[in-house]
Specification:
285 residues; mainly alpha; 434 Repressor (Amino-terminal Domain); 2 domains; two-stranded antiparallel sheet; 11 helices; 68% helix; elongated
Length: 285
């Protein structure tokens, strides 16, 4: 009798937690799916990830309590939780992409320690792939676009190269302290201009050209191929033109443009021609 009462209490507590999960997931989806909750600030990107991670903690707590339900109820709740989790995963990946593009457009340096943060985001893509391999078909989840996943992966790798690691601070501090100890023995040396002229005449460092923008046609609609978002973002950056401005010129919202550039949504022929004209005028010769 006491065991039955305890099981009933656990089930009621689980259902209350489930209601919190549903409410929290809905709030995340509404705040970020439209793109309005996304800024060009690293701190906002970090807060978004913390909010999503907090959501996953709650959904894990619910899943841990599912064995206390009867088989039919447990299977139904398992499917429901998998669907909720996957919907937030889609929002997580899509919003991560928009954050990376917007932050990259500012050309501002990433804060100290951001490399570790971005590397965790890169590892997270592997976790998402592993989750789908384990539960995707079983729970009838819609797979994420390979084009979008590759685009996010490429954006992360690009920004990781620009982001300082925590170790950079200790290395720089050690160098600074060593240089400070040598100042007493330093003598004044005036540069007659030779070294400066050699630096000025040194050829500029070559940059890798951006990937080409390609589209494929299907039934009168045009889909961007791999690296579309990367290629267009690079051209916008070189032209001092933001994706928001490009979206406004094309008469669509920024999230809609991002979905088209990563191949998730199609473009009409006039829209494709307008985009190609912009790339031809502002892209590399």
């Amino acid at each position: 009798m006491r065991q039955s009462a305890e099981n009933a209490r656990v089930r009621r507590e689980t259902l209350r937690l489930l209601a919190q999960v549903e409410k929290q997931g809905l709030a995340i989806a509404e705040a970020y799916r439209s793109g309005h909750g996304v800024s060009a600030q690293f701190i906002d990107f970090k807060r978004f990830i913390e909010k999503v991670d907090h959501f996953y903690v709650f959904i894990d707590l619910v899943e841990e309590r599912l064995p206390g339900f009867d088989d039919d109820k447990r299977e139904a709740l398992t499917r429901h939780l998998a669907d909720i989790r996957w919907r937030i995963i889609v929002v997580e990946v899509d919003t991560t992409q928009i954050f990376l593009v917007r932050i990259g457009e500012t050309h501002k340096p990433w804060p100290l320690g951001s490399r570790e943060f971005l590397q965790r985001r890169l590892g997270r893509l592997g976790e998402i792939a592993a989750y789908y391999d384990s539960f995707g078909e079983q729970q009838q989840l819609t797979p994420l676009s390979d084009v979008m996943l590759r685009a996010v992966e490429e954006l992360l790798k690009q920004q990781i190269d620009r982001a300082p690691a925590l170790a950079d601070f200790s290395d720089n501090a050690a160098s600074y302290m060593a240089a400070s100890k040598r100042t007493e023995d330093m003598t004044l040396r005036l540069d007659s201009g030779g070294r400066r002229r050699r630096r000025e005449t040194r050829p500029p460092q070559r940059r890798e050209p951006p990937p080409p923008f390609r589209v494929r046609e299907m039934e009168g609609r045009f889909y961007a191929e791999r690296d579309g978002i990367v290629a267009v973002s690079e051209v916008c950056r070189n032209a001092n033109f933001s994706l928001d401005q490009l979206a406004s010129r094309m008469g669509v919202s920024r999230p809609s443009l991002v979905l088209m550039l990563n191949g998730s949504d199609p473009m009409t022929r006039p829209m494709m021609e307008q985009l190609q004209s912009f790339l031809d005028k502002n892209g590399p010769a």
